[in-house]
């Protein structure tokens, strides 16, 4: 199912911020606001002057973890409610399922935000996928490098990204810079999952191979 593109007003985003704060714990909300800020910072590099896209990023950031605090049972209930036939690999990596359930609940629970760009940015924020668009890459990376993240790998990637001064790059360089950062975040996640012996969602492997190929094609 596809949803129309919508322009969100700042007052709608402000109301969404208050609503999400009532759903999530204080700690998770701090992370969500961190993602919103980081998505804004990254967004300015690519969508300067494009309020519609900047607002999509804000709303996607606010909604990206909206079902993250649901139990596994509640996650499965959402899949059933929306008659979503989950693939075995989706069910095998439960920590990533909130991205899917978050995307599923948006049209009904937050109808004014049922915009395809936003829904897909939420849907792919944990695993990534092959052929990610700019909204999807920005939310994916913002989730990994936002300011409340304290893992050394996250801090290092945040510092490397901004210390390269992306604002002074050409547009092509800036896109490659973003792709390299997304690739690095995926690489770190894959290493972490492998070390812990956790299941790796196939979309992550496809996303990783896709960005790596694009970067080497352009080199
Ligand atoms: Fe998150």
Describe the structure.
This protein has 219 residues and is mainly alpha-helical. The protein has one domain (10-218): Hypothetical protein af1432 (Orthogonal Bundle). The protein is built from eleven helices and no strands. The protein has helices at residues 10-23, 26-47, 51-63, 72-81, 88-92, 97-109, 116-123, 134-145, 152-163, 171-196, 202-218. α2 (26-47) packs across α8 (134-145), α3 packs across α7 (116-123) and α7 packs across α8 (134-145). It is globular. The chain starts with 9 loop residues before the first helix and ends with a helix. Fe (ii) ion binds at residues 31, 35, 64-65, 143.
For the record, what CATH class applies?
Mainly Alpha
Total number of β-strand segments?
Answer: 0
Task: Point out poorly predicted stretches.
Answer: none
> Major beta sheet, specifics?
none
The secondary structure category is mainly alpha
The outline comes out as globular
CATH architecture: Orthogonal Bundle
The run of helices and strands is: HHHHHHHHHHH
Query: CATH superfamily, please?
Result: Hypothetical protein af1432
CATH fold description: Hypothetical protein af1432
